[in-house]
Amino acid sequence: MLQSLGLIDNANESILDSNMRKIIITIVGLFITLVGVVLFILPGPAFLLIPVGLAILALEYPWARKWLRQFQRWMTAAAQKADLFVARKFKRKSS
Questions:
Q1: Rounded to two decimals, what is the model's pTM?
Q2: CB 53 within 8 A of CB 29
């Protein structure tokens, strides 16, 4: 009866679609993240690619979401330190 209604075929297609989605997200996310890691050594936008890759991976994996949040915290702290450094280094003199 389920086959005549087409429910079994739709369920199998749904499972295949979700598996393909996960495989594609994994491949694309890992590739972008690994390119970002390589760009720590080589000149390039590592600080842009790593969070983008982790954000893609975070669509399917909770561990990637955790690492993305940690990376965001590191970048926030680094930006605050850079702001303080620039403010101290280039402090305007009162006239």
A1: 0.69
A2: yes
